[in-house]
Amino acid sequence: MADKKKATPTSADPFALVPHEAGAPKMDKIIVADNIQRRFGGLTAVDVEHFEVQRNAITALIGPNGAGKSTFFNLLTGFDRPQTGEWSFNGFSLHSKSPAQVARSGMVRTFQLTKALSRMTVIENMRLGAANQVGENLARAFFPALWKKQEQEITEKAEELLVRFKLDKKRDDYAGELSGGQRKLLEMARALMSDPEIVMLDEPMAGVNPALTESLLDHIIELKNQGVTVLFVEHDMHMVRRISDWVVVMAEGKIIAEGPPGTVMANPAVQDAYLGAHHDTDLFEER
Amino acid sequence: MDFADLLVNAGRELFAPATAAFALAAIGLNFHFGLTGLLNMGHAGFMLLGMYGYAITVREGGGMLLGILVAILLAMAFGLLLGWPTLKLKGDYLAIVTIAAAEFVRFLGRSSVMKNITGGSTGIRGTDFKEPFESLSPFPSEQITIGPWTLHGTASTSWWLVVVSWGLVALFAWLFWMLAKSPWGRVLKGIREDEDAVRSLGKNVYAYKMQALVIGGVIGALGGILWSFGNAVQPDSMGRPTTFWIWTLLLLGGAATVFGPILGSALFWMALVVVKGLSAMFIPETLMNATQREPFALMLVGVTLMLLVIFRPQGILGNRRELAING
């Protein structure tokens, strides 16, 4: 896996011509969002004017605590509803779509607090991730002949993914018996069962021990190599620099900057957001 | 009464139709709680609706099949009505709504306004609705003794009812087994573990929860009909205690297992008889008379259950490993 350091795009860099500014237009957009506002009473948690995500790239969504990253994520995936706004995925409007409809359209997410299904085995978790299993329909569930063959194909696919994520030895363990990092891996592998076009990872590194971090990073890069688009929320700047092609910075609900990982942190607006606008002024001078 | 009598009586509970009726109702609850994690605290309401639907239809000359159909439709409507506002919310709301709705059905049934239809608090006598079922009996209409046990061939708590009710229990246990291991059952288990995770995988959680609620409710209604064949339709026999007994015996046997409801029901009713019998033998009449024994037995069973939930929460047939995960 060592050779899979930063993935170098074979074609020209899709971000070469993208301006380094908030709401920048992308060459090949998979997600477009406009005027998304989410207010909780008097608090405006998310207020995004324009946002685009480049297809087949790894985009990081970063920002200080309370910036509205996770809320924005929930809005995009249908787990929360904004007061205003319009957003689409592959040109298909996701406005007032349920989380399940969003997932079926090809946008699958994971959660900050891992949602492994504890009292189900690892392989059952994986099988549940598959889309279009006809036996999930109540009337057809009575007739195993209708779904047995498909179940076998799903199981084979699940086993391949488990090998890839090094969970094959845990196949018949309960998901609740896995370590925190293994659960993150399982959640990611499960999301891939439906062949999504984009995976949305909410803090994939939260609570993962450092030994597993490297392999998780490799898996995310591998996703991109297989043609999957990745959008992830993260705090860990080291990880953001290592794997992302493009970084979007949020603060106080707004997108304040965009740019490549190498330079975006040098943007004064980003430094202000992270450190406070007066971080280099002397406390006593302000009086 | 001596030990031999006690053994015979306890053994009778193992195959009694009432045991089967409760086992069947518990299989319904197993679809709710065991598979899907739904907290239905009004299962007796489904049973009572089934009893009313069947007994009233048959009394009015509708026939047995129509009676069963009406019972099923009533339970379906009840499930849809309860699930519609609550299944989008978190689990506790369903518990509150079901317990209230079941009480509503009981109070409506026993109210004097409904006396012409439901028979008010006296209910519907067995003679008004049991005839079509009992006329199908292949057994002679007389007392039949098998081993140490004597039951009537066809009337009320009869060998005929024993055969039919255990047949139904077997049928629905098989149905549970089939569905629980199908991909449909897998989605339900996923919902039990974490709804949002299942949503994020593209499944319509609301529809699945509704299906589980309706199926379990219909099975509960069928259990109610079975129970009424051995007794009568009496609204107060289907109050909150009945719901809690069903919960008790489901947890005793082991939720989410195929045979848990059956084993739980058999043990529960047997334990009641054994405790009552032993207390009659060993506690002098001056300390506890016959009328006090029933609540005493229930109390002891309650204590046993508390111990069970504390020391073996997965039930008798449950999986220890599954429990080790703080589910």
From TrEMBL, chain A:
GO molecular function: ATP binding
Entry keywords, A to Z: ATP-binding, Nucleotide-binding, Transport
Keyword Nucleotide-binding attributed: yes
Domain ABC transporter as annotated: residue spans: 31-277
Keyword Calcium assigned: no
PANTHER family the record matches: CONSERVED COMPONENT OF ABC TRANSPORTER FOR NATURAL AMINO ACIDS, CONSERVED COMPONENT OF ABC TRANSPORTER FOR NATURAL AMINO ACIDS-RELATED
Protein name: ABC transporter ATP-binding protein
From TrEMBL, chain B:
Membrane spanning residue stretches: 14-31, 63-84, 159-180, 212-230, 242-259, 295-311
Locations listed in the record: Cell membrane
Transmembrane keyword on record: yes
Keyword tags: Cell membrane, Membrane, Transmembrane, Transmembrane helix
Entries under Pfam families matching the protein: BPD_transp_2 (PF02653)
Keyword Ribosomal protein recorded: no
Membrane topology listed for this record: Multi-pass membrane protein
Name of the protein described by the UniProt record: Branched-chain amino acid ABC transporter permease
